[in-house]
Amino acid sequence: MMKFRFRRQGTDPQREKIKQELFAFNKTVEHGFPHQPSSLAFDPKLQIMAIGTKSGAIKVYGAPGVEITGLHKDTTAVTQIHFLPGQGRLLSLLDDNTIHLWELVAGMPREVVAGKSFRGQSTCTHPHTFLLLASATRVTVLLLLRSCDVVSIGTEGGGVYFLQLPRLSLKEDQTLFQDQITQSLPDDYRCGKSLGPVESLQEHPQESGKILIGYSRGLVVLWNLHTRHTEQIFLGKQQLESLVWERSGNLFVSSHNDGGYSVWPVTTGNTYSQQPASTTIPYGPFPCKAISKILWRTTHTGSPLMLYSGGMPRASYGDRHCLTIQQDKDHVTLDFTSRVIDFFTVHSTEQEKVFDDPTALVVLLEEELVVIDLQTPGWPSLPSPYLAPLHSSAITCSCHISHVPPKLWERLINAGKVQQGCQRGNKVSSIWPICGGKNLAPPPKHQELLLTGHEDGTVRFWDASGVALTPLYKLSTANVFHTDCDPSDDPHDPDLQQEDEWPPFRKVGCFDPYSDDPRLGIQKISLCKYSNKLVVAGTSGQVIVLGLNDEQSDHLVDVSVVDLLQDREGFTWKGHDRLEPRLKPAPFPPGFQPLVLVQCLPPASVTAVALHAEWNLISFGTSHGFGLFDYHRRNAVLARCTLHPNDSLAMEGPLSRVKSLKKSLRQSFRRIRKSRVSGKKRTITTPTSKVQMANAALAEQEEVAPVQRRIEPRSADDSLTGVVRCLCFADTFLRDGTHHGPTLWAGTNSGSVYAYALEVPGVGLGRVCDRVGASETSLCVEAVLGKEIQLMHRAPVVSISVLDGRGKPLPEPYEASQDLAIAPDMTNAHSVLIASEEQLKVFSLPKVSAKTKFKLTAHEGCRVRKVALVIFSSTAQEDYSEHTLVCLTNMGDMHLYNIPGLRPQVRYDCIRKEDISGIASCVFTRNGEGFYLISPSEYERFSLSAKVITEPLFSIQLDRPLDLTPASSLSSPLLDTPLDSPLSCADLTLDTTGELTEGICTRSSRHSRPVLIFPNFTSGLCICPAALWMKQRTT
């Protein structure tokens, strides 16, 4: 009989088909700002921008929704990027001295030629052309000629090489060595010194084939490619940083390491130019830092526009990251909080135009992208529809809201517009300048919000409905408290800046990594989308209830203090102090405004929060216990201490530095000693008989299934056992099986679950109203402990959810009462699903008897980190969906189980197990998607649903015929390397099972990826799906 006990059940073909229609794992898009950017490029014809990173990624952006990501095979920094204008191709130079050519094709961008290296003689066809050391041939600069068929390469050794495109073959007859230039120099300039590396290459704006070559020593040469001789030599004596042509070609400007720039006229008949027409050190006369890059743009007003980075006085402002804009008497020094990587202007590039007339300045910083409107007086910054720095202050928590009501969405957008208008003075009228491509993705059926809490006490609202994560509104909680920095003092306010300050600094950008007070950090967020109530909880025990208001308000915030220790003796708080609330009315802008502040004592970080707006109740938990508060009547209902007598660490707080090493060592030795003693106790048996010993061994084997791991119970003496991990409100059966009512559930780190029956005035009489009568106002909410559950192994409780009589999760507040969701089944018995770190278990209510369980740690050897109940819709049947339990483990994999049976459905590898911050930051949506941080500034978006996928779909009009390669011919010579995806997905092959019709993107019923459509390849229309990863191929 025992041999059939653990037999696996056979797979049901019908069920497997349903699984394929419900579940599919895809990583779809990356939101946020690229981590560690290293290079920048812009295509003025296609109006698309590319950003290279230190990890070898290239990200291309156009209009909102137009995003492409490519990844080099080697994780090497991308030092330079250059577009081939209008062709959908770009060159990339890596830090390992290799040059790569990428091109955008319908369905999959690919690398045309990769791995051309400049490492001395190792890869040269003719050794006599590269008789230089490897270090001397390091590439310093690339210049793509206007004809787009030749790229010139400057090196550290001073040589200039030329490659033929698109094959990147060396044009040996065009190579220019430094010796050829040195021979034509005057003897007094030569002086036996090297000219240094090639710092800049610039082609003549009017005459193709003429190149300015700038050497580090200061020499600038105008070289003619056709005649192979120097037309003019400019004998500069200051170390060179960069060069730029004036549009007519009659002059050029050079910037230098002394913080100055020089204007050089270009004349005919004069071989040597000893001195520039003018030399200016704008922030002199004291020593200044180098001007690393300078741009000179002509305008129809007559005065040129100059833009340059650096040049600050070393002694006073040498640590500033600045970029200066000058035109006639207008002078602004943009002051950034992170280093300037590169910048460009959006201006007219047509040959028939006389002036540049720049419209926008795009600055790539180390931590954000800033766009300046050059058409509006004052040069204000433009709001970014994407690439917003998520980490402007460090992200501490996140929350996702699905199916946002239109009214709430509109009010949030209006509050955000008022906020942006105040910051920018309502002066911005220009549109986003990077607008290449056309977004073909259908508009979202529902609006979605992503809320992020930050270290500086702000909550940011993001539009997560599509590919572009757009900022909507920012809420600050700092003005509720007294802090070192008055939030009313806006550093971006021009009235606060001194008029006679020099340099004329102006703070630009929103990246601010410094927090005025770490106690302001947001730890938990809960939003009721129907009542517009928001709860945010912070690091110092503050819990703030906010309501949405369309008008500015000056009011005093009510403060209530809840002592979670309940005068328990023997505990002394050694952590940080609480934040001091403002005792006078304060101004609050339109948007979410604070109604009441609940301060937990001791002021430990809030670890869990729950909101039930229909009952006007909030619950909150810390490492000391949990509380219940009625924010309508402004009174505390419950305070329960969960501390164990040995919870000494709970009294020190996350910001405390007084943790005792002696205590830590003592606890470690106690655990070791206890494990040894328990081990000895298990091995000691009374030698009564060999038969008894054999029976005991057999019984021990039967207790644990062969596929399970033995789980040791956790000691109650472990520190931080009183931490409240989760809280839950539910209308269910707790006292008996005939009467249901409001309940509160709390789970702790020691495996304890507390269930309280609540008496809420008005709930039994019908729907709760926000405005109650005088008789009901005198009534108070009451809480009575109904059940207390202790899990066997004392594993931390991660999640608690109550299921109705059909085994479905209970609807959110207001959903059932306002007929926004199917009413829960109150006729059959309810159950509660408790997820601990080690197992999932369903208990019947009200008796709290175990119905079913799944031992995740025993079966899989992993621990639960995140849990969510998700609705998965079928791709085959519109009216079919399933409620599924999704678990993220400490190994980074996703496990899906049906409810209430807890039978495993599918498993996916999602996050690397080494990525602890990514696992900790993961948040799920109700419809099967999720987000997690892949860097401090980027969210990776993924989908577990076969139907709900948010991915890019767009078209780009190119100036070249597309090379359309069908999926069946991927092994052709032009595509002789496998797909190289940064996500390492195995399902990135083209799907040819769908219907090919002009201008339509359909989906196959068997695959989650969209079918590629090529409506008109002769005109160069490129339609790109979500998995638009760059494809590499070599020659």
UniProtKB/TrEMBL annotation:
Q: Give the matching Gene3D superfamilies.
A: YVTN repeat-like/Quinoprotein amine dehydrogenase
* Main location (coarse class): cytoplasm
Q: Which SUPFAM superfamilies is this protein grouped with? A: WD40 repeat-like
Q: Which GO terms describe its molecular function?
A: GTPase activator activity; myosin II binding
Q: Which Pfam families does its entry note?
A: Lgl_C (PF08596), LLGL (PF08366), WD40 (PF00400)
Span of domain Lethal giant larvae (Lgl)-like C-terminal: 832-947
PROSITE patterns (UniProt xref):
WD_REPEATS_1, WD_REPEATS_2
Q: Tell me which residues make up the Lethal giant larvae homologue domain.
A: 280-380
Q: Where does this polypeptide localize?
A: Cytoplasm; Endomembrane system
Q: Which UniProt keywords are given for this protein, alphabetically ordered?
A: Cytoplasm, Exocytosis, Membrane, Phosphoprotein, Repeat, WD repeat
Q: Which cellular component terms (GO) are annotated to the entry?
A: cortical actin cytoskeleton; endomembrane system; plasma membrane
Which InterPro entries does the annotation name? Lethal2_giant, Lgl_C_dom, LLGL2, WD40/YVTN_repeat-like_dom_sf, WD40_repeat_CS, WD40_repeat_dom_sf, WD40_rpt
WD repeat feature ranges: 71-104, 449-463
- Name its GO BP terms in alphabetical order: cortical actin cytoskeleton organization; establishment of spindle orientation; exocytosis; Golgi to plasma membrane transport; regulation of establishment or maintenance of cell polarity; regulation of Notch signaling pathway
Query: In which family does this protein belong, per the annotation?
Result: Belongs to the WD repeat L(2)GL family.
Q: What is this protein called?
A: LLGL scribble cell polarity complex component 1
Q: What is the originating organism of this protein? A: Cynoglossus semilaevis (Tongue sole)
